[in-house]
Amino acid sequence: MKLWTKICAFGIVILLGGVVIQLLWSGRSAMWHYGWQFLLQSAWNPVRGEFGILPRLYGTIVTSLLALVMAAPVGLATALWLSVAPSGWLGAVINSGIELLAAIPSVVYGLWGIFVLIPWLTPHLQWLHRHGGWLPFFATPFPGRSLLVAALVLAVMILPTIVALSRVAISNVPGELIWGALALGATPWEVLLAVALPYSRSGIIAAILLALGRALGETMAVTMLIGNSNTLSLSWLAPADTIASLLANNFAEAGEQEIPALMYAALVLLVLSLAVNLSGELILGNGSLDRNQAD
């Protein structure tokens, strides 16, 4: 049994290595021809053989970071409240709601964004453009599908990850610390903020980074909502695009000349996601090591 589980675990590493090798092999001609300029150019013209992912790289990073800025405070506050809330019906309902958010398919989020979120946001964001258009982030009219709408839906999608992993990190605080603080007269919220939160800091940071990793690779909902425009704009109200959306939209009809460029773009997205996820795992591992040494 032990050998079998070890083989299964090692198989995951082999699978990941196979994906990386396939992307490197299939995209080698594009990597050799375009090099680092592939990351700095905007044109995507299969007829002329011009390929670059700068607007898509910018859209991927900005939508993910915007989603994280919106989701992290809400997710952390929810995790803190669920950690001290009494085990009543309200806590059970909120906990079940968070779990259901994680189970909703991506395409449903996309439809929700199109038929509910965009009509509701349109008058508010048009008002924001009229009165705050002097800011670069609101400089363009709101056409509906845009970078900001995609980021809002991404924030909802990564919220369960932040809540669940943050709750696990907070629940791992040793009982001796909590009972000691309570014995000194601290209230449950004071224990949570002054003892549990600093102790679980690395776990919470790792939860946020892992949520960022999911946001970077999200495809269907973002493709349906971001507008799929290959124009680099600072305005959050303008249509944009991501690397994942580029792959979803173009791969089915790509010719022999375009496929290596798409594979190169997929490799960039994979490296970006792996870097963020490995950072989260390293922070989580270092935090556990520090706590063990402290104990």
Give descriptors for this structure:
mainly alpha, two-stranded antiparallel ribbon, 12 helices, globular
Q: Please, could you describe this protein's structure?
A:
With 295 residues, the protein is mainly α. Helix content is 74%, strand content 1%. It contains 12 helices and 2 strands, in the order ααββαααααααααα. The protein has helices at 2-26, 28-34, 54-84, 89-103, 106-132, 147-171, 175-183, 188-199, 201-217, 220-225, 243-250, 258-294, and strands at 44-45, 50-51. It has a two-stranded antiparallel ribbon with strand order 1-2. Strand 1 (44-45) and strand 2 form a beta hairpin. Helix 9 (201-217) packs antiparallel against helix 12. It is globular.
Could you give a quick summary of the protein structure above?
The protein is mainly alpha-helical. The chain has 12 helices and 2 strands.
Main β-sheet: number of strands, strand sense, barrel status? 2 strands, antiparallel
Number of distinct helices: 12
Shape: globular
* Span of the ends, CA to CA: 33 Å
Output the strand order for the largest sheet: 1-2
Percentage beta strand:
under 5%
Question: Based on DSSP secondary structure assignment, what is the total number of beta strands?
Answer: 2
Oligomer: single chain
Helix content: over 70%
Q: Stretches where pLDDT falls below 50 for ≥5 residues?
A: none
Overall mean pLDDT: 86
Please provide the ordered H/E string of secondary-structure elements: HHEEHHHHHHHHHH
Structural class: mainly alpha
**Radius of gyration over C-alpha positions, nearest whole angstrom:** 22 Å
